Give the backbone structure.
Amino acid sequence: MRETIIKFAKKLKSKDLGIFYVIRYTKTGSTYMSFVNDKLDKLLSSKDEGLASGCFSQEGYMGFATTNICDNNSIDILLENTRKSMSIARENNFEKVVGWKCLTKCKNFTDNSELFDEQFKRQDVESFILDIYKKIKAIYSEKSYSISLNSFLSLVKKHKLIINSNNIVAEYAYPYTQTGFMLTITKNSLTQSYYVSKDAKLWEIFNSKTEIIDEFKNVKSRLLNWFDAKKVEPGKYNLILDGSVASVFVHEAFGHTAESDTIKLESPLARNGKIRKGEKFTKSYINIYDETIKQRRSYTPIGEYGNVRNRTDIIKNGRINDFLSDLSTYDEIPNATERIESFDDIPISRMACTVLSLSGNTFDLINDPQFNKVQDIYQELLEKNVIKKTEKYLYLINSGGGTVLAQIGTFQFSSSFTYELYMGKTMLYKGVSFGGKTLSVLNAIKKGSKSMYTFSGDCSRLGQYVPVYGMAPRMLILKEQNDIIVN
Amino acid sequence: MQKIHSQFDDKLQKLKKDAKIIGYILASNFSEDVSVGSTGTKLGGLLDPVAIRERFEGSLQVEFNDGTISKSTIDYFWLVDFDTKIMSLKKNSIKDEESKNYLFYENLPNFTKQFSRKLYDNHYSQKTELIGRVRKYKEWMNSLNEKKQSIQAGVYKSLDTITNSANLHLSEKQTLISASAFLGEITGFSLAKRQLIDMQVEDEYMDVTTKYYLAMKKGVKPKNLALPVILDTDAFPSLLSRFILTNLSGVSIYSKRSAWTLLDFSKRRQILADSIDITVKPKLSMKEWSENFSSIGYIYPESFDFVKNGQLVAPICNYRNSRLLNTKVSPPVSSTKALYFGKSEKQMNLNQKIASMDEAMVITTLLGVHTQDEASGNFTLVAPNTLYINDGQIVGRCEVMIRGNFFDIMKNCQTIYRDGLTLKPYIVTKHIETV
């Protein structure tokens, strides 16, 4: 296919499409196995493969067309559609794009492309999942409740080939595996679930078996006690966010405010479509940045127009510094943050791995809510004078997800479990929602652990799902704020 | 593009013996679309170019002579080295009694349906209409002095074909025109039709949106938060989807994550006010969700009840889940837009309702509905764009947090309709607590 695409690119040169063009070939293949308890329930293979063609005239008018039918006739139609699209843009005096001018500075790039052919090892997967199922069944063996375990393991392979009219060829592949286990406990007609997921580059995933089992073992009492737990009284509290809540929050609340189209419309980071570079935004020890990391499933070393993706320091030492730029917000050299889900999507600025890191007010933390008792964690915090015994805190554990209106700066988040920490004792409550103003959360951060938590997930925006990562301190201490309400 | 589908079919027929295939079903979709939009104050550009797309995709389900089944997606690239790919399917085949499909063996009536013939044949020529619509929305938003604009319009044309090893042939051609307009993150609307969008309906949407938008520009802080709440036609479907559709799902019932069991359906458990039916009508010819058959060739009925007189009737089950649960196959409910509410206590205009209320709140947007516990029905949510009504007038916008139990609300509510615009009711209730 590679040769066909390159041949196709040469054909473009004779078509007078515009002074700059880019051809993007994208292939995503996946194999997915899911289990209900010890039964292999589904095994699905899927693939998404196709071509996109974009071009820009000297004035900056843009044309765009796609196809996944690659016979000669359809490729000719694709070129014709790209040209038609650009003509309509010119006839109607659409927005001009000047960012293509910077693309001469990018370099040829190749990485991992041979890995796309990695095959699914079915028997290994079955033995991995079934072994974990047996161990979890043995841990949750009492008769006072029933359990069911839904699990999956998927192998996803992405392959990208980008060729542009500056003779730039960028090609990379990245295969990754992901596994997830949803344990559902039913007791007295009530149900509560706990989800553990891991991901890795290929079959390193099998090394996570012990961690998965240990986590289910540690949360057993938390899960079973949840059924009798009370609800939290609505109000304002000092909060402790665990890494799962903090990392998702940073992605949703601050990462999205830094995406180029949000910057163009309205963002707390910008004024009149321009970033407020250098302005103080929050406390000086707070940093937020976004980067692509090779061992992570959001790996996107190249933007969709062929430029190398740069790290973006969004908030540096508490000040607004940069945003996730692309050709639409061209200033000098964009950070090439544009991504797509499928070959026929229009590239938009997206995060890869968004990180909240503290350069001060940090503390060492040995215990971890995934693997240790909350009472032990509380004791460690008191001994290290991170919090005081006489101050009441709500400790929110296990993110249940959330939503943010990035432009307005309003959020809602939830956690599956909540602990009250007060006077040396801990008490479990049911999960909570907390909502309010996003900037208030950033300003409420008093301290954070040095050790970091990493989450992986899929982020949906404008109808496109892309894999993302996030990192934040395993524990974030927040002071009570008027406009953050827990309910 | 029927040609590509036929190439698959021919190759499968020829390979049947060598690959030890005893049955197969092949579903394909060919689509062509044109779209354009506007982000910010500019039309087109990098984020919203005139995008012209074509796509062929589908699914293949094969049963081998040892009784195992393999499922895979297909696309045009499958035709390259087809024989090897079919042979490799065997490696990923599994015992899957529930998926064995009667269509492998039985003959059903073949048919071809076509909606919107005129649009289908000339879909590309609609680009002028699309650009005109986007410009019209832009001018409207400019007149409101709102720079934060998000506008999209598109025409989508598709051909669905299903064949199987027992000579079944189903096909349908459809065209869809869509348009959406949002003012920043505050308010907006989406329209989709299988015909040119009626100007009167569009104008009515723009009028209602303008009214909401202007009210929302003014921030207010009501002294009293213990007020009746009206759930708007945007806010209500998100709750409906989380608390009703998720629990009605056959997968949730099978995996015991639903609030209900099969026994609740056989006993017709009362879950909503007895004035409410929830019905799907999948074959209405000119609606955006219209379909005649599923991707495994299940031909939909005209109408299917999930809830009747507030009582549970049937879960949402595809063919496989219906075999797992030993219940009826239902049409899918991919969107709450496809659902009908059979009755209402009262048909009245929202404006009349608002005029009749001393003090109330209209909830237009809810954040984080997907994070709530669907089985219990309990929710606590941020409602950032809430309209405060005082003395029968919309006074301004406030941000509140609401909490309650969805099932309690739906047993104690009044349903009212925005005439002519939507099938979804507004829900009026005193059973939501605001914080």
Notes: Chain A has a mean pLDDT of 89.
